[in-house]
Design goal:
By secondary structure, the protein is an alpha+beta fold. The protein contains three helices and eleven strands; from the N terminus they run H-E-H-H-E-E-E-E-E-E-E-E-E-E. It folds into two domains: about 50 residues; about 160 residues, Sortase, Chain: A (Beta Barrel). A hairpin with a 2-residue loop joins strand 4 and strand 5.
């Protein structure tokens, strides 16, 4: 009996001695799985549960609906043909800038990189920019207001200047319509996944300036 108790004590001591190593190995494994999952999201452009690099965008329904948009792919228009495609969006009022990417579409659903913004262009010069609200993109949306300027810097050294004319919020399930206008429109949709709300910023094109002078 004493021998058995002694063996049990030895096993407990050995387990406790190795516990920190075991715990460290488990933590390492968890981080490895997370990093691997996020890498797979980026490489294959898919939304993997519990990973956070790529997420499904709730607005896929109205982005795909031709009754609301005719924006199935990035298209050259008179502005972009002359001055280049936007690559960076800047909000000078909050000193924030984000890289702009082309849409990621899988099986008819729009996906979004959690640390970037995506853009869709049409032949009229209208631009839809969509992204997720987070510390990686924009978190202080309440500081963006009507009258603020938004800059889109192109790959040819030009800057498209827009003025925000309307700021609103609505459910992520609500349809969002690009208004008809002769002047090119900017529509920014920021999805707040936590509160199931879309922040909508509508802007008018003002001018284009050369920023390489």
């Amino acid at each position: 009996m004493k021998l058995l108790i002694s063996k049990i004590r030895q096993l407990i001591k050995l387990f406790l001695k190795r516990l920190p190593i075991l715990f460290a190995n488990i933590i390492t494994l968890i981080f490895t799985v997370i990093i691997f999952s996020n890498s797979m999201e980026i490489i294959f452009e898919v939304d993997i549960p519990y990973a956070y690099s790529v997420k499904a965008f709730t607005g896929s329904n109205y982005l795909n609906d031709s009754n609301y948009y005719s924006l199935t792919a990035n298209q050259q228009n008179k502005l972009t043909a002359n001055y280049g495609n936007p690559k960076i969006i800047k909000f000078p009022s909050i000193n924030k800038k984000l890289e702009l990417m082309n849409p990621i579409v899988k099986d008819g659903k729009y996906l979004v990189r959690t640390n970037k913004a995506h853009q869709i262009l049409d032949q009229k010069g209208n631009i839809v920019i969509y992204l997720l609200k987070s510390w990686q993109t924009i978190d202080n949306l309440q500081e963006i207001s009507e009258g603020n300027n938004v800059f889109l810097d192109s790959d040819k050294g030009w800057r498209y200047v827009y003025r925000i004319d309307e700021v609103s919020q609505m459910s992520v399930n609500s349809n969002i319509v690009m208004p008809n206008s002769e002047n090119p429109q900017l529509l920014i949709i920021v999805e707040d996944r936590k509160n199931l709300t879309n922040y909508i910023f509508r802007g008018q094109y003002l001018t284009v300036i050369n920023v390489q002078k």
